[in-house]
Amino acid sequence: xxxxxxxxxxxxxxxxxxxxxxxxxxxxxxxxxxxxxxxxxxxxxxxxxxxxxxxxxxxxxxxxxxxxxxxxxxxxxxxxxxxxxxxxxxxxxxxxxxxxxxxxxxxxxxxxxxxxxxxxxxxxxxxxxxxxxxxxxxxxxxxxxxxxxxxxxxxxxxxxxxxxxxxxxxxxxxxxxxxxxxxxxxxxxxxxxxxxxxxxxxx
Length: 203
What we know:
The structure is a single chain. With 203 residues, this protein is α+β, with helices and mostly antiparallel strands. It is 51% helix and 15% strand. The protein has eight helices and four strands; from the N terminus they run αααααββαββαα. It has a four-stranded antiparallel beta sheet with strand order 1-2-4-3. Strand 3 and strand 4 (165-171) form a beta hairpin. Helix 3 crosses helix 4 and helix 5 (78-98) runs parallel beside helix 7 (179-192). The radius of gyration is 21 Å and the shape is globular. The two termini are 36 Å apart.
């Protein structure tokens, strides 16, 4: 009820031409121009590319139909996990650079036999050498996963306490591995673990 509907009379000629062009493509085109429609709506309402991406990702996994629900619950492909990891590293690196630090993010465990995938973020001063991080032990992972399942969590974060390193476990359902989820996770990690990643004070 609160969504702002813009009257056609308030639109300029450029937007009216776009409506006509996109409507014709939707009616008679061989391929539906949904990406063009999304872009036009985003521009019309002044949405950022992140806003549009978040809406697109949400609709792809949240609509109450068989297709989106199947997409939400499926295990992410390895290339999707790798893309998620790169997106996290890219955003965290940009934020860390302002604090004079570097960040790397890597997959440390992604077994097809397990319902979790683990990423590790490592931070160190710019110009220095990345610290060596010991491998995760099976017994450590078992404790984290058991605790997460008791709480019904879909994400767990472990900070060992020696600084500069944290591990994130994410349930392997695609709804938690979309590009917009990578951005949300990165910002949440900085907010909650600033001391670990940026050398500041965590909240």
